[in-house]
Design brief:
By secondary structure, the protein is an alpha/beta fold. The chain has 3 domains: 234 residues, 2-enoyl-CoA Hydratase, Chain A, domain 1, CATH 3.90.226.10; 243 residues, 2-enoyl-CoA Hydratase, Chain A, domain 1; 44 residues, no CATH class. It is built from 23 helices and 20 strands. Strands 1, 9, 10, 11, 15, 17, 18, 19 and 20 form a 9-stranded mixed beta sheet that branches. The chain has a 7-stranded mixed beta sheet with strand order 2-3-4-5-6-7-8, with helices on both faces. Strands 12-13 form a two-stranded antiparallel sheet. Helix 6 links the parallel strand 5 and strand 6. Helix 19 packs across helix 20. The radius of gyration is 26 Å and the shape is globular.
Length: 574
């Protein structure tokens, strides 16, 4: 009978770093975490107290009050896309659109993970801004991939019309939300909607395919509101009279239940979730209970260096993420710049693929820098990823990569072909994949290690993530290569030309460095969420547990018959 033997991994922080390094690293990360927390708080406040008062004056709850009433008391919320549109101005508005005017998150209701999609009714009455549709669709895709129930809390005044050209048309325009509704229904994913207020045009379509639709007395769903209907004033029509609960619950039957107010609707939605199948996570734990790591996740603020060129031991990071700091390494004898293995998070199995940093000794090859992809490592992680897919194990990618090996030998070894094999493995992976960009996410290595274009269910960044084709200085050298000699020094004796080239390179490097900021990446939806290092373990516990909640939609072998065992036997002699 094959068994997985987990082994202790990691050391006490004081055995890894000296007190000065610990203090310096913590101070650096604390400053970044504080700045990030301030941004998240700004987003959560929406348009501020004045607009909260307006919502309350209408007898309604704010979006965050609704979410808190919906979820299990004391449970944690894990947002995705909270920084979408951060720092962006829009024509026709004196205010920005924090969070793109919609909250999307993982949360627990009756001990089941659900995806919540809720219009922020303190931001332009829940209007859809540029990137709001994409953010909603991204959350729907996460729910579809994990087969998690979706709860829509609808309070939407429709498109923000001055910017309609940036959110209406295109392959991912607002209408694609409704296709996602249909795809979820087609795959048997439960959708439950509460309609709490304005629900105009696209906002009116979003709840209709849901399995249950609740409407409060102040809610209405209309293709066009009274303001757009000719003669509405003389007929004394209102949007509520055109499409309120009296119409849609009792006449059109577009909604199922009529409830007096927000709290009642939220209680009814909770009751609906309780009627769904319970989580399968406890079954797949095979009698093992969740356990915290032996070393606290808060240590990660000290372990990750302030200088991205400085190395660290990825084993120490994993020891702060997995249960009991226990890990089983798979294929340890080859492709040493890559680490592959299995562990438990929240008592549930997960495969881990991570970059090693520093100088790595490869058997039969010699020493070479980590943080890059070489032939042996690529073959190793391709094979391991396929084995996880075969066995039904979720895969967690921990990225800190500068790219692929380059040079004459790399091309002769066929790295392009090996890289394509890895891309194919990831593109056809049947098990859920989650990607964490710990630090560097550079070049084609970012793609190969399941970057966002290769469909991880969720991609997380940290406050020190640097996501780009090249670092700023490297890109400046590439851009001005024709002006440089073989040693990358400026090849001119003309003082004015030299000064112009120096200025151009400096400006290019500075612009690229700004583009690499993780908050900017999150604003553009180039990553799903920026998570402080100390909170990474909790977030991963949510995602891994959510990936084991629904049974029957993917292959899930018991650990005795994993393909990984065959892999280890066949490679043992090496």
């Amino acid at each position: 009978m094959a068994r997985v033997h987990l082994h202790p991994i990691g050391d006490e922080l004081q055995q890894v770093l000296g007190p000065d390094d610990i203090a310096q690293n913590r101070a650096y990360h604390d400053e970044l975490d504080a700045a990030l927390a301030k941004k998240h708080q700004t987003v959560r406040e929406g348009w501020g107290p004045k607009y909260v008062e307006r919502v309350h004056a209408k007898g309604k709850m704010t979006t965050w009050e609704r979410i808190q009433a919906l979820i299990d008391p004391g449970s944690q919320i894990f947002e995705v896309g909270s920084l979408v549109n951060w720092g962006r101005d829009f024509a026709g508005s004196r205010r920005q659109a924090p969070g793109a005017g919609v909250v999307t998150c993982f949360a627990k209701v009756h001990d089941r993970w659900v995806v919540v999609i809720a219009n922020d009714n303190t931001v332009a009455s829940g209007a859809w801004w540029p990137q709001t549709p994409e953010k909603i669709q991204r959350a729907q895709e996460m729910a579809l991939r994990l087969r998690l129930p979706v709860v829509y809390l609808v309070d939407c005044s429709g498109l923000f019309l001055p910017e309609q050209s940036r959110s209406f048309a295109g392959a991912r325009g607002a209408g694609h939300i409704f296709k996602q509704n249909a795809r979820l229904a087609d795959h048997g994913v439960a959708q439950i909607a509460g309609v709490f207020g304005d629900c105009i045009a696209g906002g009116g379509y979003m709840p209709l395919i849901s399995d249950r639709v609740y409407m409060t007395e102040s809610a209405y769903m209309v293709i066009a509101g009274a303001a757009l209907i000719q003669g509405a004033k003389s007929q004394k029509l209102t949007s509520l009279s055109i499409g309120g609960p009296e119409v849609h619950v009792h006449q059109s039957r577009c909604a199922d239940e009529r409830v007096p107010d927000d709290p009642t609707a939220l209680r009814c939605i909770r009751d609906e979730v309780a009627r769904l199948p319970s989580s399968g996570a406890d079954f797949y734990r095979h009698g093992v209970q969740p356990a915290e790591p032996r070393f606290p996740a808060t240590d990660l603020r000290a372990l990750l260096p302030t200088d991205f060129r400085q190395g660290y031991a990825i084993e120490q990071v994993i020891a702060r993420l997995v249960d009991d700091s226990l890990f089983h390494e798979v294929l340890p004898g080859l492709g040493r710049e890559m680490l592959t293995g299995v562990a438990r998070i929240s008592g549930l199995w997960v495969g881990l693929i991570a970059n090693r940093q520093g100088i790595v000794e490869e058997p039969g090859v010699g020493k070479r820098p980590g943080g890059a992809l070489y032939r042996e490592g690529i073959a190793k992680i391709s094979t391991f990823s396929r084995a996880c897919g075969e066995d039904g194990i979720p895969v967690l990618w921990l990225q800190d990569i500068s790219g692929f090996d380059i040079g004459v030998q790399a091309e002769r070894q066929g790295l392009l072909g090996y890289g394509s094999s890895l891309i194919y493995a990831n593109s056809t992976q049947p098990s859920p994949m989650f990607t964490v960009l710990l630090r560097k996410a550079s070049g084609a290595g970012y793609y190969a290690m399941s970057g966002l274009p290769y469909d991880p269910v969720v991609q997380l960044s940290t406050p020190i993530t640097r996501q780009a084709v090249m670092e700023g200085r490297t890109l400046a050298i590439a851009a001005f290569n024709s002006k440089l000699d073989d040693d990358f020094q400026i090849a001119t004796d003309d003082p004015q030309e030299r000064a112009a080239i120096e200025q151009g390179m400096a400006e290019t490097a500075s612009r690229i460095e700004a583009d690499m900021d993780p908050v900017d990446a999150a604003s553009r939806m180039d990553t799903d969420q920026v998570v402080p290092l100390a909170e990474l373990r909790a977030y991963l516990s949510c995602l891994i547990e959510a990936s084991w909640q629904s049974a029957g939609y993917r292959r899930t072998k018991n650990p005795r018959i994993w393909s990984i065992h065959d892999l280890e036997v066949l490679c043992a002699r090496r």
